[in-house]
Amino acid sequence: MEQLTLQIRNMAKEILKKGDAKVIIGWEKGNFWYVSTPAFIDKPEDAERLIWDEYCTNNLAKYLMGYKDLEGKVAIFVKGCDARGVNRLVQDKQINREKVLLIGLSCPGMKDEKKAQELGENAEIPLSKKCEECRYPDPVTFDLFIGEKKSQKKVKDSKDFSQVKEIEGMTPDEKYNKSAANYEKCLRCYACRNVCPACNCKDCIFDHSSKGWLGKANTVSDNMFFAMTRALHVAGRCIDCGECERVCPVNIPIMLMNNKMMQDINNLFGEYEAGLDPEDKLPLGSFEYSDPEEFM
Predict the structure, then answer these.
(1) Is residue 259, in this structure, part of any structural domain at all?
(2) Which of 11, 25, 19 is CA-nearest to residue 79?
(3) For residues 81-107, b (16+ Cβ closer than 10 Å) or e, as one string?
(4) Which of 283, 241, 275 has the alpha carbon at shortest distance from 258?
């Protein structure tokens, strides 16, 4: 990965020198060996901060929201999940694709930083859960590409919904107790919302306590209401990047509810994967007058 890091730095320098972009979003080394954080570069000499290693886990797409009104282009390095996040923002009309320069990288699978912290530098660190389940290591869209592509097809033929089916086999009481056990831990810190490319509303209802959507107290019922509301909000729009679950400080299996939504949408409307093509119609975002109305 050292060679790719050099190529990343050289390309970033050239882009900024030529004025092809005003800002470049990539990764730099954090304060710990197991942490690589988002980096925002606007000077050619600062390109030396950029790195590419096995801890560049963050999906960078959401950070484009901070530059949506910038005059000129933003360049951003994208893995498979980052590229799908960009498509998500384009499809939601949050960013203009013509103002973004995508630099693709094939993802080898990023390591789990929480396990790295726990096990130590000399241990064998497992892949991050989101990377174990990833089906698109190569960016689905890009303008420039560094290195070699890992594969031209999905790593797995289909998404694994076995955990969803396990929950579906439970009784109503068992389902409730499992969900309550998960969400009684919730801090309502909104890290899951803040990192999610599909959570891109200008104003979030949960930022307006005066509207009474949630109580001020951190209760299990309010936490579950928040979780279900957010899952429904991103239904048909979740790009399956797993960032929400990765950043959760109390390790709630947030993707379980998202996966349930994906499975149901596939069953009701046909196979659909968000973020692959910004021209696709959203399964829950469009309609035809000929659609059946049995629900009436």
Answers:
(1) yes
(2) 25
(3) bbbbbbbbbbbbebbeeebbbbbbbbb
(4) 241
Q: How far is CA 193 from the centre of its chain?
A: 10
- 30 and 86 share a domain? yes
The dihedral formed by the CA atoms of 149, 280, 62 and 108, expressed in degrees to the nearest 10? -20
Question: Three-class SS of residue 93?
Answer: coil
- Same-domain check for residues 174 and 103: no
One digit per residue, pLDDT tens: the chain, 296 residues?
889 999 999 999 999 999 999 999 999 999 999 999 999 999 999 999 999 999 999 999 999 999 988 999 999 999 999 999 999 999 999 999 999 999 999 999 999 999 999 999 989 999 999 998 888 999 999 999 999 887 655 556 678 888 999 999 999 999 999 999 999 999 999 999 999 999 998 888 888 766 677 777 889 999 999 999 999 999 999 999 999 999 999 999 999 999 999 999 999 888 899 999 988 888 888 767 776 666 55
Q: 69: domain range?
A: 2-146
CA distance 92 to 65: 12
CA distance 220 to 211: 19
Residue 209 lies in a domain: yes
Domain count, the chain: 2
**Does the residue 241 lie in any domain?**
yes
Please tell me whether residues 169 and 73 are part of one structural domain.
no
- What does the H/E/C string look like for 173-221? HHHHHHHHHHHCCCCCCCHHHHHCCCCCCCCCHHHCHHHCCCCCCCCHH
Query: Do 101 and 94 meet the contact criterion of CB atoms below 8 Å apart?
Result: no
Same domain for 199 and 168, yes or no, is yes
